[in-house]
Every structure is written in C-alpha cells, then in structure tokens.
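Quick one, T. Sequence first:
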Amino acid sequence: LASASMSKRGNADGDASKKEVKAIAVQQLPSTSLGFDSPGDALHGSWSSEKGKCSIGKDPVTARLSYMEPIGEGERIHGWLDAVAGEDKLWQGTLALLADGQGPWYGPSFGPAPEVVGDIRVRLLDTEKKSMQTQIRMKDEDTEWGQPTVFTLEGTETGPMAKPNLEKILPMTQQDPGDQEPEKETGEKKKVKRD
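Structure tokens:
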C-alpha cells in the first residue's frame, strides 16, 4: 500500500500503472568473495615450529587479534597483536603470563594486570606453505629482538581461546541487593563465653 501511494505522489498525472516501483534493499550483499576481513585474519589458526606450538585468533570478547602459547601446567603466554604502522604483514604486542584458568586481562575491572614478560613480533611470510615467524624480546633481559622462529600452519582452528569468567564481573550477571532473600532465623541463640 505504501509503494502504491508513493508511486501516485511521484507521478504527475496520478497514473500508478505506467511506472513500476522497484524495492531497494537496505544493505546489498557482495556479489564476489571479499576474502579476509582484515590482514590479521590471515594469521588465524594453530601454528607449530621446532620449538613448540601457538595459536592466533580473534578474541571472543573484544574481537582483537590474540596470540596464545601454552608453556606447561596450564600456564600460557598471551598477547594482543596490533598491526605495525608502515609495515606490511607485521604485528606486535606485549606478552603476559597467564596462570592456569586465568583469562586475558581486559582492564582494571578484571582485577590486577598479569605479569608482563616481554614483547612479540609476528610476521606473515610469503611462502608456498603458509608460515609466519615470531621474534620475542624478554622484559629486563633483551634490548634487541631475538632470533626469528618460523611456524607453519597446522590448521585453521585456533582451539579454545582464553576466556574470562564473566559471571561475577559483568553488572548484568550480578544479583541486585534488593533481590536477595532475607536470612532465616534458626531459633538458636549464640552462646557467648564470658569470663
């Protein structure tokens, strides 16, 4: 009904039958594949080298590029990777040590910041088999970047990225103090020892 009304207003002689109104979509879908959303998406996956394994993926809370490397007994090295301005296929971030069960640090409302252990650079390499290299600079030990370690892509699954337990942190999951049930009295009185 609205489109017929629009056609009549747009037609000077009031004849809506001469002009067909075509519906316009609010958002057009791409007709071709756009590939990766950002250059960092090319790093998503599980990687392995002679020295160990790591995973890079999109953080489930912030959608930031996240580096994760297990170091044993549930501990992990974690870093947020940011593209380096003026460089092609190079990302850099600060590395923090996460204890078993500890998620990434998203800011002061998530408690104290984890221990920072160094910095990392990640460069995507142009090779036949998809590979990247990392360089680490340990805090208080190195002033220069360490020797590069080359990793090859094992799979596009990043595995479980570290997630915080949001139940006790986010305001919408906390119980309103007015909603708490009053404590029930048991009828027993406390015995107080008097001297």
